[in-house]
Each structure stands twice: as C-alpha cells, then as structure tokens.
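@channel anyone free to eyeball this complex?
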Amino acid sequence: MTDLEKRSDRSPVPADWTYAPAPESTDIVRLQERYGLYVGGEWLDTKEHFATIAPRDESPLAEVAQASGADVQNAVAAAREAFGSWSKLPGSERAKYLFRIARILAERSREFAVLESLNGGKPIKESRDVDLPLAAAHFFYYAGWADKLEYAFPNRSPKPLGVAGQIIPWNFPLLMLAWKIAPALAAGNTVVLKPAETTPLTALLFCDVVRQAELPPGVVNIVTGDGSTGAALVESEVDKIAFTGSTDVGKAIQRRLAGSGKKVTLELGGKAANIVFDDCALDQAVEGIVNGIYFNQGHVCCAGSRLFVQESIYEPVVEKLKKRMTTLRVGDPLDKNTDVGAINSRMQLEKIEELVAAGKEEGAEIYQPPCRLPEKGYWFAPTVFTNVAQSYRIAQEEIFGPVLSVLTFRTPDEAVEKANNTPYGLSAGVWTEKGSRILWMAERLRAGVVWANTFNRFDPTSPFGGYKESGFGREGGLHGMEPYLDFE
Amino acid sequence: MAQAPVLPRGFELPLKQRLPRIGAIDQVAVEGRAADLAKRSIKKDAKVWALELAIRCCDLTTLEGQDTPGKVAALCSKAIRPDPSDPNVPSVAAICVYPNLIPTAKERLAGSAVKVASVATAFPSGQSPLDVKIRDVEDAVAMGADEIDMVIDRGAFLSGRYAKVFDEIVKVKEACGGAHLKVILEVSELGTYDNVRRASLLAMAAGGDFIKTSTGKLPGAATLPVQLVMLEAIRDVHEETGRKVGMKPAGGIRTAKNAIQYLVQVHETLGPDWLTPDLYRLGASSLVNDILMQLRKEKTGAYQSKDYFTND
Amino acid sequence: MTRLPVKKTYKLFIGGAFPRSESGRTYEAQGQNVARASRKDARDAVVAARGAQPKWAGATAYNRGQVLYRIAEMMEARVPEFAELCSGEDEVHRSIDRWVWYAGFADKLAQVLGSSNPVAGPYFNFTIPEPTGVVAVVAPDEPPLLGLVSRIAPAITGGNAVIAIASETQPLAAVELAEAIATADVPGGVVNLLTGHRAELAPWLASHMDVNAIDLTGADGLRADLEVAAAENVKRVVVGKPDSQSLYEISAFLELKTVWHPIGT
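replying in thread with the prediction:
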C-alpha cells in the first residue's frame, strides 16, 4: 500500500447541519402594477385603489381596485345577463368549460402557487402541494356533475338558482375560490366573487384562466375591495350568498338576509377538539397534532386548536410535541424548506398576540421553541399552552394562529362532553388504534368533519361544513351541489 | 420496580403476548411524514456537507458468492481513497464482506481508519442452528473483524418465538467481544411497520449497537418510511435509557439525492448527534460514485458522466 | 408531381404495444390488410389485462377520471382521421363527449352506488362498489366508433381492464382509437383491442376462466352459445345498447362489498 493510502480520516463533525436557503423563484409570476375589476369578461377601472402587499416583508405587490356599491351592482347585472345563455347550455357543454379550467389550473399550478405564497404568506410547499392540486381537482370533480344531476338528485328537478354572490377568506384564497365557483357554475349559475381584502391576487390571475378557457363573458365576475364591497354584494340583487369567513360577519350576513328570500350558506369559525387516546400510534399522533394547528400557521377554520390528551399518556405526548416543535422551520414562505410561514396581516398578528397575552394572564403555561423570526413582515412562533382550563379565553375563542391549547380527559365520555362544549362545531380529531372507539366517537362528536388518525384532509368528493355556529351548508361532494340548485 | 412476594419473578406478562401489543404504527401517517421530509431542498454548502458526511458514513459492501481477494482489494482502495483525483474526499467508514474475505480486507486496510465489518450468523437467511451461527461470529472476530452484521431469525419472529430471537442476539453480542454488533431485521420480510418497530425494540433491548434494515439480498430493502419507524424506536430507547443505538439503512440507496433524504430524516428525528459514522451508516455499493459525481457537479457547475469515475 | 403517402400497418393493441397477430394472419377490411387475431392473441390479451387491472383499480378515482379525459383530448386532435373511418364528424364528436361524460363519473360512483346502511345494531355498516376485474367485450358493428367507445368506456371507468373484439367489417376505427388510447397515459393492458373474425375469437374469451365478465352487445347470432360458455366460471353477462350512456352501464361491471364494524368504547 502506498503512502497516499495510509490516511487517517477523522474530520471534525460540525455541531449542526444548517440547510442553505432554497428559494422558489418568483420569476414565474408577472404582476401588473394595477388591476381593475373583472366584469362581463372585461377589465374595468375604478375610482379608488389600494395596495396589496407581501406579508413576509410588507413589500407592495400591486394596486387593486376598491369596488364601490355601483361597481358591485354593475357586476351583478353582468352576471344576470350571462345567466340567460349559460343556464340554457347543455350540462355537458358547461362540463367541458369546467374541465378546461381544471386542466389549465393544473398546467399553471406553479405560477399560482408562488403568487399564493407571496400574497398570502403560506409556505410554498403548502400552496404547491396542497392548495393548487386541490383547487384543480375541485374544478375537475364538479365538471363531472354538470350533466349528471339526475343521478345526484333522483326524483327532483334541479335547476340553477341564478346569480350567486360569493365572499371568500384570506387563508386559502384560490382554493376557496374553487370551492365556490366550481359547484356554482356546474349547476348553471353565474357568479360575482369577492376575494378577501388582503389576498386578491390569485383571484385576479384566475381571470386569465377564465380567458384561456374561453368562458362566456359574465359567467365569472371578480370584484375586489374591503368589507364594504362584501356588504354591497350581500345587499345586491343576487339569488344566493355563499360566505366563508369569521363567525361574527357570518351572523351579520344572516341577519341582513333575513326575510329577503335569498338563499345563504355560511362556513364560519371553529375551535376543534383534537382528541388523543392512550392507545394511539404515538409518533403519528404527534405529527397529527402538529399538522392540526401549525399547518398554514393555524389560519384554518378547522384547525385542531384544542388538544385533549388522555391523562394516562399526557407526559409522553407533551414531551414529544415540544421536541417536535423545535424542528419546525419558520421563515420565508418562498423557501422550499419553510414549514411555518408569515401571519397574513398586521391585524391578524395583533389578534393572536392579544389572545396569547390573555392566555398567559389567565394562568396557562406557555412554550415556544427557540426560533429566529425575520425582522420585517408578520411573524409568530409556534406556541403551545399547557395547564389550560376549559374556561380560559384561549380554550374558548378562535385564535386563528399557530397557538395550541392542551387540556386533559380521562374517559371517552368525558372527551365527548368537553369536545362538544363549545358553540362551534366544524371539525374534530380522534387518535386511537381501536376501530370501534373511532366509530363511537365519530357518532357522538357534534362536528361536520371528523378526522380519525389523521387531520386536515380535504378532497373535492368529501363534504365539508359545520354544525352550530360554525355555519351551515356543505361544500364538496354530492352534497356540495345542493346549495346551488333550486328544487322548487 | 417492586416485586410481589408470592410470585417468583414478579408480575411479568410473557413476552409472546406483550410484544404484539407494543407500538402500533399508522402506515398512512408514517409514509406521509417520510414523504414530507423527503421534500427538503438541500442546496449549496449544506448539500456539499451532506454529501461528504454520506461518504464518511458509507459501508462499502460486497457480498457475493463470486467475491475474490482481487475484488475485495480493489474495493478497499476505493474505500480509502474514493476519488483518486481529489484527496479532499474523505474515506468511507467501513468495508462489509463475507468472513472468508476478512483477511484480505484487513491487510489492504491496515494503517487506515476504515473498519472491517463482516456479516455472520448464517447470513443472509439465519436459518441454521444457533451453535453454527455463534461459531460463524467467533471465526469472524478471530480473523479480525471490527464489526459484525448479524441477521435475526425471521422465521422465529414471525411465528411468535420472540424469546428465541432475543436470546440469539444476546449470545451473538457476547461472542462479538470488542467488535460492535449491527442487528439486521430484514424489514421486507417483516410485513408491517408494527413488526419493524417491535423487532427494533427487541434488538436494542438485547444489546445491539446498531439496528440495520436489510441484508440487501431481497428486493425492497431500505425505504424512507421504514427508516423513520426505526429512528423513532431508537429515539424512544434513548429517551428511556440514555443509550444511543446506531442506524444503518442498507440496500436500494443508489443516488446521492436519496442518501441526503435519509440523512435529513436522521437530522430531524434524532438530531445532529447521530450524524456521525459512529452512529449512522449507509450500506451501499454504487452509491459512492453517484455522490462523487454530485460533489464534482457542485464544484465545477456541470453535470457529470459515469465515464470519469472508476468502477471498482 | 404528387407525393406518395406512407401506408399504415393495422396491428393489434395488447399490453400497451402494437404487435402483429402471433399467427401472422391478416384479412381485408375497408380496403386494408388488418391483423387477424388468433386465440393465442386473445389469451395474451387476457394476461395483459389481468396484469394491469389491480394497479388501475388501485389508482385514485380522480386519476382514472383524468386519464379518461385525456383520451378525449387525444381523440379531439384526430377528428378528421376518425371521421373518415366511421359515419363522419358527428359520430366522432359524440364519441369524444362520451369519454368526457364517463371521465366525470369515475370519482362519483361510490357516492351514488354506495351507501351507509342503518343496520339494527351497534355496527357501522357500509357498502362500496368495486370493479369486477377483467371484462371481455364483443363490440357492435354499428356505429363502428361510437359503439366501441360506448361499450369500453363504462367498464374501465369503474376500474376494470378490457379486451375488446372490434367490429369485423369496420375495424379501422378501433385501431385509430387504440392509437389515441396509447398516447393518453392509459397504463398498458387496461385496454386491449383485437381485430379479426368475431366468430373465431369470441368463444375463446367467453370460455376463458380468468375473464370475470363479458359484454355481448355485438354478439348477434353467437349470443346463446357464448352465454353457455360464460356460465363455466359464472361470468357476469351484459348485453347493452350500442349507443347508450348511463350510470348503469358502469354498475353492470361492478361488484358491491358490504363491511361491518362494531361501534363502542
């Protein structure tokens, strides 16, 4: 053996392995300086505009239109006019438009994902791998119902309602757009949709998909603006209002529409119980807890924000949870390795901070893993509160942020009682390896969606919606067609 | 733990009934978590660091009926100096061979830090009487093996004879003397992730220094979800006892990109303490060349060709 | 000077590939030499179908729907070619729209055909549809394209794999269809198309013990004997219409599975 080969190799091991930045390029998105309203297949300018920013660093992205009451009425009139011919098209032709939209969204999905993360703050790996595929799939699914309604509702004669006014939130902007527009159009309605104030850009880019799909003008109309635009839409001559957003605004809408004869569906807030039994698949349950509350920074109506741990397994669960939280990567939403992105707006950040302060004051014990938060932009570290009592504000009120409250229970009966002890009823989670108990719990939990041994799973075929103050009406599945049809 | 006076050995559930109730694993969730971790994007200096670590953790392996001293000698040269054109590329951790080739490997590796690992215990099937398997280990150790890679008796495991599996590992560990012991579970024969976890815990309880996925003789071998299950078992043993057991995925890891995915899992499940050849090995043969190609690509900026890397 | 075109060779479609008949035979139809499949080709097609079916059934319904939609995309690009081989553009458009219609049903079958059943006891009980497996199809002569599509599409929508015997007198549309299917991301073996003599081939499929169902829409005078042969392994026998489009065409090739599980703490 030569001298060259007689080498001892023991290079020192660095203390830790830091992943280098892995940014997804934003080159793929071409933004205009200013956007108008998309009405009757045309772009219309407005008197007032406002800036929309990137929450990761508060940098301005574009100017968007502030639709006035008159603008909204104009949009509704355009939708009304388009309704005549759209509703008379054979279902199979409407289906083909929707299939086109689905395919184009799938093709342009990277472009949309980057824009979604830029404008909204969620990690690119979520917008790329969850929001976009689900949005395209939603259009694909509902396309197939457009000409098969006699199978969905046998012995009933379903007809479109007319014009639907749709108001969507900022947490899943494009996906919520898909959830609203796809079934509405499949049923033969036309729509006026108002995206959330802080996240208008993917809805505006969607208008280009509408153009590429050659959708007849006026079938889809997008009006941007703040809360006043939404209020104007609720007041306008639509046949139906579909709203997803906060419970308070939902109640206001329900009050406003009372006696008007307009149909309404509401998808509101939640304070879901995520229930972990001592015979769960432990490490997978911890993943489920993390996914339940830190996915999309906790900006999820169905987030598992109340963790109920069976007392017999409390220590291992909380220990593993805290350790797991230390590997969450909080940072630039456009970095492919980011797990937790930016909070959507200053307003939401302040709300989270207020409730977290209340939690500390009321006596809960707070834990946040060490993380370096960027200086500019809106950020909040993943947080977990233990020693939480049912009555604390952090156990009652929806925080809509990456903040988990941990409570305990002893028996299945107690778990059900505590889980249901809330005005909300959107979702719930159950973790146990015992099949019969999963079904027993599912039977008793007053929630529109029950996830067993999983969490935050969505599919266009799966109906989603709440009990009690989490709203009424279902989106997704065969049942999601009903709110958009008139059965006389 | 206190002992009840009436019962001679205290209240212990027999192993047979207890082990199947340990640690259910949800397949969908564990595969989902492994898929998520596999999406980590490791670039630039983080990637170079990982590639060099991967080489330092490699157990260059040849386990063929047709192995000869010539073949093993060439492999040893590669182990010491993977890239003749670049002295900065570190040596691998070990060579892994059949017992008959230990003397050649010892001779060729003398003076280097590369270890000699040998398979033993009627590898790969393990289907021989215990005394034959122990003798196999003793011979390998006598010939100078630094490390022993044993196989568990899967037939015994799958028919519920867990005590036999346990006892064999204990006895093999004794026969190893100063050599460190890797316990091969042969995960693709175990059928479920539940069984992988049980076998992992059994192997660690019996004294294994490393747990290893596969013999490499069956298709399937190491997968990312299987490693995740084993890492979580290692983590639990460490939490409970303070003992650090090593991990070795083997078989089916052919690309540098894949190797980095395995390392990311270790990093995010066990932490940086395990990112060292003392606690982590990659059982591979053709992997090293792909890593060398990636390293050279990072250095030169151009995609590489196999023509420029030796096949030993 | 006019250019001499390259003439197409009309072969079988088995396992995603285009082999000639293992028998080396051809016959003349619509002015062309067309492969004349033998019983061994039929046998090979069944092997290919059986091999491909589990993975096709295991794909998500959404994925199956997308693949079927892509068949429509591929056909749309070839409308003039198809039009020459059948009654015209109108039949081609209807065939394309038929694929689109079935594509849109793939991810809805469980919702309309399945159920959760309220049994009188503490059990959760549900019924789900599943594909029957390998389906043989004897395609009708008329309409040559739409009839073939109408008999193949419902079977594969539900997750089955199909071996179809094309019209004997008008087989070219089937070969063109095979080419569209081959470029549409359909896994090899999910659709197999045999051209040849119907009376020679059909009995081999009807008696094949590894075929789960047989569609005799185009069997005409052969029907009675084929039904007798089918009884040997209790095949599901289906006789449909050459130009129909319905949920029940799909469900004819589906089994129903009912599952019970107790509800308790």
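from a first look: The first strand of chain A starts at residue 37 and ends at 39.
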